[in-house]
Amino acid sequence: MIVKLDNKAEIINKINKLKKEKNAIVLAHTYQNVEIDEVADFSGDSLYLSRMAASTDADIIVFAGVYFMAETAKILSPKKTVLLPNLEAGCAMADKINLKQLREFKEKYPEIPVVCYVNSTAEVKSESDICCTSANAVNVVKSLNSEKVLFVPDQHLGSYVESQLDGVKVITYSGFCPIHHEITVEDVNTKKKLYPNAKVMVHPECTSDVTALADFVGSTTAIIKEVKNSKDNEFIIVTEKGVVDRLKRDCPQKSFILVNERAICNSMKLITLEDILAALTEEKHKIEVDSNIAQKALAAIDRMVKING
Ligand code: 13P
Ligand code: SF4
Hints:
Rossmann fold, 12 strands
């Protein structure tokens, strides 16, 4: 439920007061309801938010995002309290591979390093060599200096990485994000016909036939930066609606067209300002990760965070 305007200012004030009292910060992913940014200390893509979670000296991190993001923050900052305001906020891509399936995949292709997209469970991370996000996947794979890598769970991001590197075979697991997977070439071409001068900005979770139509491919933060620095004025945004909402807010002089009406991650949209207020007031819902799993997952996440770009 989106908060009504008359309540909104009051809720924001209460959140800001509690943040000060409890030395808490709010991290918000780019796909959150845009009003969440009004209480966010940092807002951006998964890589940026992981870095902020690792470097903050706050005692409490409220993660306005999905479960795997809060879990990653907890692994990076185990001594801090990490709160997810709505426990229902999961990720359909992360659910596409579990530990057993990862082990079977590794058995099928032994002795090949495993790159794990952060959109995955802590258990899956714990049996991977290195993590990546959409912002650094190409550099992460390059850093391994391996002719072959296994890439889980996102087949499309894995294929995109392979297309950007000479001589590296990226063997992908069969996972995908339903929101990006369902964006079609026809969706993009329909918008291109209507807006022939618009630049096409694509997230690499899209299928390879969709990324082939892109003027720019990048993470949510990379797309926003590119638009802000561009001399162009019209953009077809081929990712989740939160990116369009933020661009409309930040660049009112430019126009933005969402690729299709279905490009909404309902899970990301579950979190409301009221949930954040309740999370801070009651210090719920605390994210915990088994210490053995967390230790192993941290090695893979840490390796990623140390890679530039
Ligand atoms: P980025 O945050 O890396 O742009 O990825 C988008 C996403 O799907 C996060 O769930
Ligand atoms: Fe997961 Fe897709 Fe939602 Fe991102 S947009 S959180 S990958 S379901």
